[in-house]
Write a structure and sequence with these properties.
This protein has 388 residues and is an alpha/beta fold. It has helices spanning 38-56, 80-93, 115-122, 136-141, 148-161, 179-191, 209-212, 220-236, 255-261, 294-300, 318-326, 337-342, 350-358, 373-377, 379-384, and strands spanning 8-14, 16-17, 29-30, 65-72, 96-106, 126-132, 166-172, 196-201, 240-243, 246-248, 265-269, 274-279, 284-290, 307-312, 333-334, 368-369.
Length: 388
């Protein structure tokens, strides 16, 4: 089977935030007395991109960027002028699709009113707010620096600036949260009429402050009840679930994240950024990640030391990696996409499909890879069916 190069995105990691949240396991670094070298970091991002272009060469030829995602950390710590300079540099180096989705993650506590005009002028056409909750007590427990009122004001400010594509991140199963509390968060989110809501469970990740000192969280049954009740409420208000933790108004699904879940390609620049690239000529899928610490990344200055690692995904690993993404999609994916995105014959997943269908985790559909409601609840077990 021949691998077909999929759509291509760009992920840009901005590693600094005002304060590290106790649940966060992302590559983020709280501000210290010395301000970060924001302007220099933009130069290093472009040097990183230049080096990746030189390394990957023909594998990028003729492939437009369909989406750009600024993640962090808190990308909104960077001024609109710096984001504008960076996006101009990206456009000089890579072709962008005319309708490319460009998302900036934003902390409601770090954006000054009026800055959204500048981000919009720079080309950022989608804003993602890390709200997490509209309960001030829960926000304090989560270590967030904003209040519920500040979150609402920030969203309205972005809307006033002209943003029509806005995501809100919400968490549930928070410390001592009740079902009514989780539903109240959804109601306040929906009242702001964002186009997209990411709704995901708080989990205790290794090497975080919460893992070392766990807060009192709802048990699994209560967490599941919150998820089901919130799903029902979101559906009733026009937000269709299209991924395990993603809900969108019609035609407002996140292009960038869909490309991840459909096993698309993406370049990753910035400290700790990850990328995945398919070489259709060589039939290979390669992952690359950048060195994590901002200081080491800056010192590398676009050189080889910026690379934290390279890994060619083996044929034995590809089925699991593919399913890890594709099975998150509620509507499923065509079975023909597996050989196209991996270069492997369909029989490489035949045993896993048979096992998952027998357990009632997948629909018995010869055309579509599609989890049942039971499969969505036990998704990790479904994915494990495809381990080598």
């Amino acid at each position: 089977m021949s691998l077909i190069a999929p759509p291509l995105s760009l992920y840009i990691h901005m590693p600094w935030c005002v304060k590290k949240c106790p649940y966060c396991d992302f590559n983020s670094h709280g501000l210290r007395s010395e301000p970060p070298p924001y302007a220099d970091y933009i130069d290093h991002l472009l040097a990183d991109l230049d080096a990746d272009r030189a390394d990957f060469g023909a594998a990028l030829e003729g492939r437009p960027i369909i989406s750009i995602f600024f993640g962090g950390g808190t990308p909104s710590l960077f001024s609109p002028e710096l984001i504008d300079r960076l996006l101009d540099g990206v456009r000089e180096r890579l072709p962008l699709a005319s309708d490319a989705e460009i998302t900036l993650e934003t902390n409601p506590g770090t954006v000054e009113h009026g800055r959204f005009d500048g981000y919009l002028a720079a080309g950022v056409n989608r804003i993602s707010f890390g709200v997490q909750s509209f309960d001030d007590d829960k926000l304090k427990r989560l270590g967030r620096i904003h209040s519920a009122g500040e979150a609402e004001a920030a969203v309205k400010s972005a809307q006033d600036a002209g943003y029509t594509n806005i995501n809100l991140d919400l968490m549930y199963a928070l410390p001592q949260q009740t079902l009514d509390g989780a539903l109240a968060d959804v109601e306040r989110a929906v009242a702001l009429q964002p186009t997209h809501i990411s709704h995901y469970q708080l989990t205790l990740e290794p090497n975080t402050a919460f893992a070392a000192n766990p807060p009192p969280l709802p048990d699994d049954d209560h967490a599941w009840a919150m998820q089901e009740a919130c799903e029902t409420r979101l559906a009733a208000t026009g937000y269709g679930q299209y991924e395990i933790s993603a809900y969108a108004q019609p035609d407002r699904r996140c292009v960038h994240n869909l490309n991840y879940w459909q096993f698309g390609d993406y370049l990753g620049i910035g400290a700790g950024a990850h990328g995945k690239l398919s070489d259709d000529a060589g039939g290979q899928v390669q992952r690359r990640w950048k060195t994590r610490h901002p200081r080491a990344y800056l010192e590398a200055s676009g050189g080889a030391a910026r690379i934290g690692g390279d890994n060619e995904v083996s044929a034995a690993e590809l089925p699991f990696e593919y399913m890890l993404n594709a099975l998150r999609l509620i509507d499923g994916v065509p079975l023909t996409a597996f050989p196209e995105r991996t270069g492997l014959p369909p029989d490489r997943i035949a045993a896993g499909l048979a096992s998952a269908r027998q357990r009632g985790w997948l629909h018995d559909d010869p055309q579509l890879l599609h989890t049942t409601a039971l499969g969505q609840r036990f998704l990790n077990d479904v994915i494990a069916s495809f381990l080598d």
